[in-house]
Design a protein that fits this description.
Length: 379
């Protein structure tokens, strides 16, 4: 995403883009997720870790929180070539914020969190092929669990289930719900609207199959980060329009919601890390068939019909080009009569969600999402 289509880039920020490391959107192992413990914290882990940055705060974020800065410093230390200079296949091999958190935990003797969750892999048939999903099932012995359909970030181009494993684990463990993490097909191999179609097909598959793995098909929510936040909202919209059962709730974490890259947060955070404006433009170029598609309401959510959607929670970060997207989405949802809760976290960047083992604000945001989901599920 380079400044060429300022307007459509935003939409792909969603990307957790910044966070991808693997060349495949599916992961190599889906069993016993309890040992894929990346970033979900115990309540006191972040405080006890004593993790400090090594240098001064960056010029683009003078008020960045120290733990967040340490993650950004570690990510920069790998020396990877900037994503906008790479082809998608190469970009998927870059280090990710997940790698930075994992390495900081090792270096500072922060124990990996233990989740009371098992996982199993599932393949979902979709038009033109199949997609993979990792199902996180709590080990608390219930006969039926509410279900969360989760969509990872990566700008529709990079990242995979492993990169966002921490978020899925936290949600399953703390909400006591089954999480189905969806590996939708990526661009440029699969252009718009493939990811959007895969997201909805996965949701329908969950409704039809949840009972076979202890899920309650009457209690299903959608959650997504960045690009995945856009997919979560779009899935609910399509469910409404096609008369499929609506999700019980939507949680959108720093979602891509607009196609205007001249917003206040894009200007302020143009050089932020791990997500900046050039990366956004790169995602747009890779996902869209043409720049005109940036006006499509599936990308430009703030122009979509949002009436009749379920209760929605929007989480934003101060040091993020997409902050304004999330805030504008909140305003549009309220204007459409949707019940909305939202909260912004200062001093943290895009991708902070899921970093609770290191970043205290991430732990707060994770529990904010958990509380919203519990409320929707009647827990």
């Amino acid at each position: 995403m380079k400044k060429r289509s300022i307007t459509y880039a935003a939409l792909f920020c969603m990307m957790g883009a910044v966070a991808c490391k693997s060349s495949s959107s599916s992961s190599t192992s889906d069993s016993l997720a309890t040992d894929t413990t990346q970033m979900a914290p115990s309540a006191d882990t972040a405080k006890s870790a004593g993790i400090k940055p090594k240098g001064p705060a960056p010029a683009w974020a003078p008020d960045i929180k120290p733990e967040m800065q340490a993650v950004i410093e570690k990510l920069a230390s790998y020396g990877d070539k900037p994503i906008p200079q790479l082809k998608a296949v190469e970009a998927r091999k870059n280090h990710t914020p997940t790698d930075a958190v994992m390495d900081l935990m090792k270096e500072n003797n922060v124990p990996k969190p233990v989740f009371n969750v098992d996982t199993v892999g599932k393949d979902i048939t979709v038009p033109g092929g199949s997609i993979h999903a990792r199902v996180y099932i709590p080990k608390t012995g219930k006969s039926a669990y509410p279900v969360i359909v989760y969509y990872h970030g990566g700008g529709f181009v990079i990242a995979n289930l492993d990169v966002y494993d921490a978020s899925a684990n936290v949600l399953a463990d703390k909400t006591d719900a089954i999480v189905v993490s969806v590996a939708y097909r990526l661009a440029p191999e699969r252009k718009f609207p493939t990811a959007h179609n895969d997201a909805f097909d996965a949701y329908k598959w969950v409704l039809a199959n949840a009972a076979s793995w202890q899920g309650d098909p009457k209690k299903v929510a959608v959650v997504g980060e960045s690009a995945g936040g856009n997919l979560a909202v779009n899935t609910a919209i399509k469910a409404r329009d096609t008369k499929v059962m609506l999700p019980a709730a939507i949680v959108a974490v720093y979602p891509v919601a607009g196609s205007d890259m001249t917003t206040a947060s894009y200007v302020k955070n143009a050089a932020a890390k791990p997500l900046d404006k050039p990366m956004m433009e790169w995602f747009v170029k890779n996902y869209l068939n043409s720049m005109a598609e940036g006006k499509d309401p599936r990308i430009n959510l703030v122009a979509a019909n949002l009436k009749g959607l379920p209760p929605t929670t929007v989480i934003t970060a101060e040091i993020d080009p997409l902050q304004s997207d999330g805030m504008m989405l909140v305003d549009k949802l309220k204007a459409a009569g949707v019940t909305v809760d939202s909260k912004n976290w200062d001093g943290v960047t895009h991708e902070f969600f899921g970093m609770g083992a290191i970043v205290p604000q991430a732990k707060e945001a994770e529990m904010y999402a958990v509380d919203a989901l519990k409320k929707a599920f009647g827990i």
